[in-house]
């Protein structure tokens, strides 16, 4: 394949898997990545996580290591993998696709553990850094590995073809992990958990859905006694082979997105939406006990309806995402605890048509 000027192939193997990369020669006029929310905000938040002072060394699964960040630059977007010693795995891309619940994905968790173990053993090859947040993002085709320990912060910027075996191996694993993550998060968004139904999903729908799933109104827009900050109702339609996602927030905003690309925003100003939204929040609040935690919310199968809500159990408590799913038939005939919530959501959906 003919390459563009300033671009070269290089490859390496890790445990029998050949990983092939593009290396770009740095240019002064190179176009920076387009950064879509919530990449920047979440990067600042995750880099601010620090070890607790005086934590018992016997409880540290990876010795000195507290967290690892692998920033991997592809041609069109940047993928950042955040791994913590407590098992937390968060992956954000500059394109706006992300997941914060991948510790439940077996292959991803296994790759993450391998990276943490290798980084802990290779810390002697890292350079000390005063402030991880001040480091620039890597350019296209390059990567960097950041490590936070109980004693300080460190970084490694491996170069293609470098002789540092440990750092080069970690680089390979970071690329492998990012590929596994893309399969679990981006491609997995299109496929239902059972039945192998494949939806045709527009890229903008993916991006907006991923961003809004984690979005929260500003604290000043939430009443002190509010128990529900957002409600997402997603309906899988067997006839159209599409998913309709309704997002309603406590600040009054409401919008509808369909996997085939249809978008209806600014619904809060339409007659009847505000009343239906308040009724939807009340109906969800009354049956909070039927919701459970879910780390990775895939698209619902045709004929199913899923509810993703962000609630707090006590006044001033932490906001938590919870999940529930039911058949459309059970919701429609009134036999399900979420039937009332589904009816109010349908009222908003009818207004949006």
Structural class: alpha+beta
Mean pLDDT: 77
The oligomeric status of these chains comes to single chain
Calculate the terminal CA-CA distance, rounded to whole Å. Answer: 48 Å
The amount of helix comes to 25-40%
Largest sheet: 7 strands, antiparallel
Per the principal axes of the C-alpha atoms, what is the gross shape?
elongated
Total domain count: 2
Secondary-structure element string: EEHEEEEHEEEHHEEEEHEEHH
* Helical segment count: 7
The total strand number stands at: 15
Biggest sheet strand order reads 6-5-4-3-8-9-7
Strand content: 25-35%
Q: Roughly how many Å is the radius of gyration?
A: 22 Å
Uncertain segments are 1-31, 185-196
Molecular structure report:
It is a single chain. The chain is of the alpha+beta class and 353 residues long. The protein has two domains: 7-189, no CATH class; 194-352, no CATH class. 26% of the residues lie in helices and 27% in strands. It contains seven helices and 15 strands. The protein has helices at 39-47, 106-121, 165-187, 203-213, 273-286, 328-332, 339-352; strands spanning 7-14, 17-24, 65-73, 78-84, 89-93, 98-99, 127-129, 143-149, 153-156, 228-237, 242-249, 254-258, 263-264, 304-311, 320-327. A seven-stranded antiparallel beta sheet has the order 6-5-4-3-8-9-7, sandwiched between helices. The protein has a six-stranded antiparallel beta sheet with strand order 13-12-11-10-14-15, with helices on both faces. It has a two-stranded antiparallel sheet with strand order 1-2. Strand 8 and strand 9 form a beta hairpin. Helix 2 runs antiparallel to helix 3 and helix 5 (273-286) runs antiparallel to helix 7. The longest helix is centred in the middle third of the chain and has 23 residues, at 165-187. It is elongated and about 65 Å long. The protein starts with 6 loop residues before the first strand and ends with a helix. The model is unreliable at 1-31 and 185-196 (pLDDT under 50).
């Amino acid at each position: 394949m003919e390459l563009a000027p300033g671009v070269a192939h290089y490859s390496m193997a890790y445990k029998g898997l050949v990983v092939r990369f593009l290396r770009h020669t740095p240019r002064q006029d190179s176009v920076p990545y387009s950064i879509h929310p919530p990449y920047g905000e979440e990067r600042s938040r995750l880099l601010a996580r620090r070890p607790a002072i005086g934590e018992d060394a016997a409880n540290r699964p990876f010795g000195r290591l507290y967290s690892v960040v692998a920033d991997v630059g592809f041609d069109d977007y940047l993928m950042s993998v955040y791994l913590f010693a407590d098992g937390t795995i968060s992956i954000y891309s500059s394109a706006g696709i992300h997941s914060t619940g991948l510790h439940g994905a077996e292959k991803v968790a296994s790759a993450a553990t391998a990276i943490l173990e290798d980084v802990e053993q290779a810390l002697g090859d890292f350079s000390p850094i005063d402030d991880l947040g001040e480091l620039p993002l890597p350019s296209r085709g390059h990567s960097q590995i950041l490590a936070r320990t109980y004693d300080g912060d460190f970084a490694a910027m491996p170069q293609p073809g470098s002789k540092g075996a440990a750092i080069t191996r970690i680089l390979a694993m970071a690329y492998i992990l990012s590929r596994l993550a893309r399969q679990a998060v981006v491609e997995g968004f299109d496929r239902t958990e059972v039945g192998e139904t494949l939806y045709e999903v527009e890229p903008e729908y993916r991006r907006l859905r991923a961003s809004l799933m984690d979005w929260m109104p500003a604290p000043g827009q939430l009443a002190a006694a509010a128990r529900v900050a957002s409600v997402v109702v997603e309906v899988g339609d067997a006839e159209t082979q599409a998913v309709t996602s309704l997002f309603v927030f406590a600040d009054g905003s409401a919008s509808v997105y369909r996997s085939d690309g249809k978008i209806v925003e600014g619904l809060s100003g339409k007659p009847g939406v505000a009343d239906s939204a308040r009724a939807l929040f009340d109906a969800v609040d009354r049956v909070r006990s039927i919701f459970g935690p879910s780390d990775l919310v895939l698209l619902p199968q045709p004929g199913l309806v899923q509810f993703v809500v962000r609630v707090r159990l006590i006044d001033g408590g932490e906001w938590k995402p919870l999940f529930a799913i039911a058949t459309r038939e059970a919701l429609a005939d009134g036999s399900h605890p979420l039937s009332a919530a589904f009816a109010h959501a349908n009222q908003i959906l009818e207004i949006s048509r």
